[in-house]
Amino acid sequence: MAAITASMVAELRARTDAPMMECKKALTEAEGDLTRAEEILRVKLGNKAGKAASRITAEGVVAAAVVGGAGALLEVNCETDFVSKNEAFLAFVNALAGLVAEKNPADVDALSALPLSQEGFGPTVEDVRKGLIGKIGENMTIRRFKRYEGGKLVSYLHGTRIGVMVEFDGDDVAAKDVAMHVAAMKPAALSSAEVPAELVAKERKIAEEKAAESGKPADIVAKMVEGSVQKFLKEVSLLDQVFVKAADGKQTVAAMLKEKATAVKSFTLYVVGEGIEKKVDDFAAEVAAQKAAAEAAAAAKNA
């Protein structure tokens, strides 16, 4: 059985906000598998342990740009929050967003090969990146971008950590409101039919395990599972979500858009560091290791 360390418990607690002892029990049951332990906590504690998807796990910046009829949303990561506020780093990220919108690179490698000069570094994006790493003293990586062209676009940035771009037809104000809604509510897809199959399967598995613990007949359990899955789909589908600015607290995004004669074709949401495994240091273990190494060196010297 895998050893359950204090750092593993701390990471699971940071992901879920669950009590420390519950995290330890879940990790023990999951034999050290963090993802499985999180699922176990979801079954036991419900939505209280479902915060992993929105947990920030790395530093960096999201930037948006619209050039002519094209737009881009882009994320660049760095090691610390301090560097994410560095003027040179921010200038680099904003320049990249503009390049994506204007030049339409196929992927990160193609973007890295485009011409760019900054801070005396160049002549390519990759040369500037390497130069800034040397100057600032911290690693930085271009993680991802999404480009749109040919439709109406609106973007919304919540600081530099959350970015949204929406492709739409209709009213500009309504589309901007949708972009702000996406940043706040973080839907997984435009409609229920577009929710990724792996998310639905994961939620169904959790619902089945939770319903099985009720001890109710199989037909009732099946209805409970289906009800949980349908509730989940409404909660993570943009059009089915209750609009954050709804005056009555009930109007859905779809109803608001219909009222404004507006249609959202697609959207992209980036949250800085989402899904990136950030190293969790076990300080006590590190100190113990350093002490042991020092004692071993002293013993060798005196031998």
From TrEMBL:
Which GO molecular function terms does the record list? Answer: translation elongation factor activity
Segments of this protein annotated with the region Involved in Mg(2+) ion dislocation from EF-Tu? 80-83
Location within or outside the cell: Cytoplasm
Q: Which family does it belong to?
A: Belongs to the EF-Ts family.
Q: Which PANTHER family match?
A: ELONGATION FACTOR TS, ELONGATION FACTOR TS, MITOCHONDRIAL
- Record-linked NCBIfam families: tsf (TIGR00116)
- What is the protein name given in its UniProt record? Elongation factor Ts
Organism, scientific name? Roseateles subflavus
